[in-house]
Amino acid sequence: MDRPSPHYLWRSRWAFVLAATGSAVGLGNIWKFPYITGEYGGGAFVLLYLLCIFLIGIPLLVAEVAIGRRGRGNPMDALAHVAREGGASRHWGLLGAMAMLCGFLILCFYVVVAGWAFAYTLKMAGGSLAGSDVAAMQAIFADHNADPLQLGGWSLLVALLTLWIVGRGLQQGIERAVRWLMPGLVLLLLVLVGYAATTDGFAEGVTFLFRFDASRLNGEAFLAALGHAFFTLSLASGAIMAYGAYLPEQQSVVRTSLIVALADTAVALLAGLAIFPVIFANDMSPAAGPGLLFMSLPLAFQQMPWGQLFGALFFAMVSIAALTSAISILEGSVAWLNEQHGISRRRAAWLLGGVLVLISQLTMLSFNQGAHWTLAGMTLFDGLDYLTSRWMMPLGGILLALLVGYRLRLDLLRDELHLPRALYALWLILLRYVSPLLILLVFLHALGWLGFDPLQRWYWVAGACMALALLGECLTPGVRSLYRPAPR
Ligand code: PHE
To answer: For 345-362, how does the pLDDT look when each residue is reduced to its tens digit (9 = 90+)?
Structure first.
């Protein structure tokens, strides 16, 4: 039995696609993807990232949307409801709580990065970056971060904007914003890639992104790629599940999820194609870290006709893309306080907002006064990123895969997905064997409990996945059971 949605449903056919794309496309694509690709050496990392998107990310994205819609509630409630309906314990709702917590921790550093994008919009528009060379760009970024008032002010502004929008429940606003934002962003990225193609770093940039160098494959890069796949698709953080709850019945879960994932991947690759040629043309290091975007693209804009205008527009769009992602993170928790505890949306937003402002201001200090507050060599900013992307999201992902793959009645979500049998079986097999095993290997490696680097023996891993799938299908009333006619 489907539950009626307790709240808003997206109005138009495209609304969910737009909102979920707005959630997925954000700083992860334009800021984080290029900089970690640079740190992990390019092509091999990109390949791992794509593998993680297709083998783990998309199946989980589909699962989250389907559970959100089936459960029709905030992530905690939706999971508890679907678990019960599928014959598992309601306590699976706690997985939703963990996801919302993870989203909240992400938001605490996300607003700091979004603050950079806002500040750079102003810097570009005001022309204060004009005429700067590489060294000057680096100095400008460093100066911006050294000043807690500037950095804190921008982070605060982003946090307040997010809270204000979520508090008003402006879904229509998101729909409208994303409708012109996405095409605009892609168009500007294409202009940038066009410009990059005229620089003498283009060939090197393309080679860096797409040349597969097996010697650079290792478990560490795999861990980063896996975490990033979760981050960029907004998985295991409550966002997608919360939006899924508003998805009208007649919309296809699978088709919409695929559109979202493909749009997300395309924007990331375009951002890489725009940034790396500029890096190589200016003899910069691709491994410059989190400042990579802000130190490279302003150089490109400077050398382009209408660069000041294009640059300001570009960073404005990045800022809005960041906002639409930030909003999606809070949506689940606000809906939870609202539905479960009867707190009005506005109060819920400001309640969470108080904590958000506090932690994000502390996080912002990682770049100046608090740079020496470190744990295991990480500042608060790095620590939040590491904890969420490397641990909490993959953990949430493995638990969700196990829930859908083993605890729920296997045919429960079939009505939600409307897939041909073979594709439904493939989806289940990915969730039952491939995602959990890959995530587990990455975890064991990260903990240092695996005596070898799983990726250097990838054939071993692939073989183990297949053997496990076969064995599992023989031993359990697995996917095969779906092919038997239902008992009358
Ligand atoms: N997917 C967003 C991005 O790429 C970040 C995000 C993470 C949004 C988790 C929601 C939840 O920028």
So the answer is: 899 999 999 999 999 999
Inside any domain, residue 4: no
Choose the residue to mutate in 64, 107, 110, 324 for probing ligand 1, maximizing ligand atoms within 8 Å of C-beta. 110
Ligand 1 contact, 330 CB (< 6 A): no
Q: Is the CB of 333 under 6 A from ligand 1?
A: no
- Does residue 154 lie in a domain region? yes
What contacts 283, CB < 8 A, 6 or more positions away?
134
- The count of structural domains within the chain is 1
CA of 24, closest atom in ligand 1? 1
The CB of 26 under 6 Å from ligand 1? The reply is yes
Residues, the chain, total? 488
CATH of the domain at 391: 1.20.1740
In a domain, 7, yes or no: no
How far apart are the CA of 36 and the centre of ligand 1, in A? 15
Tell whether the model's pLDDT for residue 1 goes beyond 60. Answer: no
Secondary structure (3-state) at 249: coil
Q: How close is the Cα of 320 to the center of ligand 1, in Å?
A: 13
From residue 330, how far is each of 23, 126, 354, 470 by CA, in Å? 11, 32, 13, 41
Residue 449 is predicted with a pLDDT of 79
Distance of alpha carbon 336 from the chain centroid: 21
Nearest-angstrom CA–CA distance, 316 and 46? 27
Output the CA 326–ligand 1 centroid distance in Å.
7
Q: Is residue 35 part of a domain?
A: yes
Ligand 1 in reach of 57 Cβ (< 6 A): no
**Among 354, 333, 381, residue whose Cα is nearest residue 113:** 381
- What is the domain range of residue 392? 13-483
Q: Which of 29, 234, 260 to mutate to test the pocket of ligand 1 (most atoms within 8 A of CB)?
A: 234
Convert the pLDDT of each residue in 198-245 to its tens digit: 999 999 999 999 998 878 888 888 889 999 999 999 999 999 999 999
Q: Are 60 and 397 in contact (CB under 8 A)?
A: yes
- pLDDT tens digits along 143-165: 999 999 999 999 999 999 999 88
pTM strictly above 0.70: yes
CB of residue 59 inside a 6 A radius of ligand 1: no
Residue 28: CB within 6 Å of ligand 1? yes
